[in-house]
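Researcher: We're teaching a course module on how sequence relates to structure. For the next exercise, students receive a sequence and then see the predicted structure as C-alpha cells, so they can try to spot secondary structure elements on their own. Here is the exercise chain.
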Amino acid sequence: MRPSPQILHVVADLDGYGQTRQLELLVAEQLTAGQRVRVVALTAAREVVREFEQQGIGCRVLDRRWQRDPFVAVRLAKELRRSSCDILHLWGQGAVDYFQFVRRFVRHVPILATLPHESDCIRPGIVLEKASGLAKPSGLNRQQFLAEQQLGKNSTLIAMAGPLIRSQSVDEAIWNFELVRTLDERVRLLIFGDGPDRHRLERFARLTSVPSTIRFLGYRTDFRELLSHIDLFWHTAEPDESLPTSVLEAMAAGVPVVANDGPGCKRIIDTGNNGYLVLDNDRAIFARHTRHLMQDAQHAEQLVTKAAQTIAERFSAEALTQAYANLYAESLNSRVCSLAESH
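Model: And here is the predicted structure for the students to work with:
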C-alpha cells in the first residue's frame, strides 16, 4: 500500500483572510486523514501562526520584508531542498513568483498552484456549523460578548470582516451605517480585521459617527464562532472575481448578508433569495435592505435557510478536500507515468 504523500504548502501571506482560511481548513482535514503536511509562509501574522500551531499544523515563517526579498528567496530554496515532500502546493501569486525564482535550485516534484481569481477551478469549502450542530463555542455567549465590547443588551449587531485595505471600502460601510443608525439607535457596527488602513479608518469613524457605535475588533481567531452572535453581515469590498470567504462563512453561520454587487458575490448570492446584492454600494438601498432584514425576522430566517442550502450544495468542506485529493492523486500518477516512460 502506497504511503500518504507528504505535502508542503507554500503561502504568500498567512494573514487569516481569504485563501488562508481555505488553507487552514484543507490542512486540518489532511492532518485528520493522517497525511504528512507542513506549511511555509513568506509572511504571516503572529495570531494566525499561533492558531495554526494550536491545531497541530507545523508552520515556518520566512519573514519577507520587501516585495522582492532576496533573503527570503534563499530561505525558500533551502526549505525546498531540505523537504522530502511528494507534492508542492503554492498559494497566491507571491508564492508562485518566488518559486519561479528558485525552482532551478531544487528537485523536481509535482506542483499545484491556487490563485485568488481561479475560484471556478476549485470552489472554497466552508464548514456548515449551523446545520451540523458542530459549531465550536467562542468562549463567550452573546451577553458576555456584548459586555466585553461595552454594548447594550438590546444592541443590533452588524459585522463586516477582512483586511483593512482601501479595496475593502470600509469607508462606504461607515457611511451606510450612519444612515441606518439614524433610523435605529440600537445598531452597532463591528469591524473584524486588521491592516495598513486601520488607523485612517478609526479616525474616519470618529469624525463620521458617534465613537461608541463602531468597534474595530482587529483580527480575532474566534471570528467564525462569534458570528453566531451577529444579526447582520455586510460586505462592501470593491467588485472582484474571487469568492469572498467571509461572506460564505457568514452564510454558513446563519447570518443574513447584504453585499456590494460584484462578480464574486454574484456567484454566491441570489438577491432576495439567499441574501441581497447592492449595486455600487448604493447607500439608500443598503439601508433599505438592512432595515427590511432587521424588521422582518421571518424573511431573514428564510434567507439564512436558503443561504445554508447554497453553502451545503456548492461550497462544502468535503467537496474542497476531495477536489484537492483528486488533484494530488492525478499529479502523482502523472509523475509515476512519466518516470516509467523515461525508463
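Model: If you want an answer key for the exercise: The longest strand covers residues 6-14. DSSP finds 14 helices and eleven strands in the chain.
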